[in-house]
Amino acid sequence: MFDRHAIVLIRRPLALIARPLARWGISANQISITGFFIGMLSLPLLAFGQFEEALICILLNRIMDGLDGAIARIHGITDCGGFLDITLDFIFYAAVVWGFALASPANALPAATLLFAFMGTGSSFLAFAIMAGKRGIENPVYHHKSLYYLGGLTEGSETIALFVLMCLLPHWFAPLAYGFAALCLITVATRLWSGYHSLKS
Asked: Residue 191: left (phi > 0), alpha (psi -120 to 50), or beta?
């Protein structure tokens, strides 16, 4: 929901960082992979209750996720880069939730509920992107992306905010997980409705 506004704010700072990196020959894929491994460090940190340290890894991952796109726009956006980026993102999102489940048995059910909801948002997002790609449909808001970004209540910005709150308030994990899962299910419902009717027409 807030991604379109966040992109406007962060695009210029990321571009300023990306230009020297691109000149040094650093590729978007290298940034994607490095950011992924940094983000995955949050999994064991969360499991052992090191929430502040995990938050640092999560935020660095998200910064590098924006940075790889900025570098890609300099070198040229590719399908393989877009595939790598979105796949690693989804694995990272699931790993963070799994880390909280490992941190406490009490988190298992809310974590499973949130992962169930993530499956809905992820599958609806990717399924529509595939169909939009087949039909040559372009998103006027995210035209710089390598695939069609179908919006909703719970996008990247909201997910980052959720992870920050969970790390800062780990004892609130259950209500945060259940609440966000409910918003994800609303997103799935609206995507199914709008996606189906968009493709039908």
From this structure: alpha
